[in-house]
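Friendly challenge for the regulars: who can give me the structure tokens for this chain first? No prize, just bragging rights.
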Amino acid sequence: MRRLLWLSLLGVALAASGVRVIQVEGGRLSGDLRYGPWTFEGEVRGRVKDLEIRAPKATLTAPKGKTMQEAEGEREARFEGGVVVRRGRVEAQGPSLVYRERTGEGELLGPARMRQEPRPGEDPVEVEAARMTFQVDTDTSTSEEARLRSGQQEGRAGSVYYEEEKGLAVFSDPKEVVLTRKRREGDLVIRAKEVRSLTGPKRLIATGGVRLQDGDLVTTGESLYYDDTTGEAIVLGRPAVSENKKEGFRLSGSTLLHNVNRHQVRVYGRAFRLPVEEFKKLGER
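First reply, four minutes later:
Bragging rights claimed.
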């Protein structure tokens, strides 16, 4: 039984390794054909699964003592001279990229930019970051020191995780995530430790202590749910507090409903729980 389990796990590992093997072609090839490294110069293309990489130069290396063929699944590819990464509706650009077959990660060094073309009725998603890491086993990326924009919303955080097809952006920062919605009458600003946003339907949850600033009206609590299509935020706390010091207004309760279009707050009379299931990452329980 143990032997069968070990063989099964080995098969899964080998399958994953095979999927992660990069194919590089195009341009002029030079180097030791058996042991490498191989250098490609010209119009170079790399492909791993559905991730495509283009650059004027690439170098593929194997661990010392292994042939390029023996080392499949352990090699490293470095693309330089201005890199373009494409997958589905996503295109990203940066000065260089390092792909490691062992991890299945492509690290795009910054300053890096990414844009996802929208589906009908949605806004494009644009990211600027110090560096981006693309996973080939999934349609996800993680950006460091990042700014993400979609429509009138913009978020800044130390780390932004993004699922391309789902359109899920997870902003996290040990200090503070800042999410801003541009408005003529003054920006709407949400501050929290973590914000999870569905960029298509424009809904989000924020946790870790939240602050919603709507002009002079400020609502604070432990967490919130916000729907940009209705302009309503449901803020939970022990208690949640809303204040407009300029007008001498103060309201508190376990759950507050803050309408940012009307600049009004009232106690929310029904039981409410954050819809966390909708905002879970791939594989998250």
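DSSP finds one helix and 19 strands in the chain. The CA atoms of residues 144 and 159 lie 5 Å apart. Your move, everyone else.
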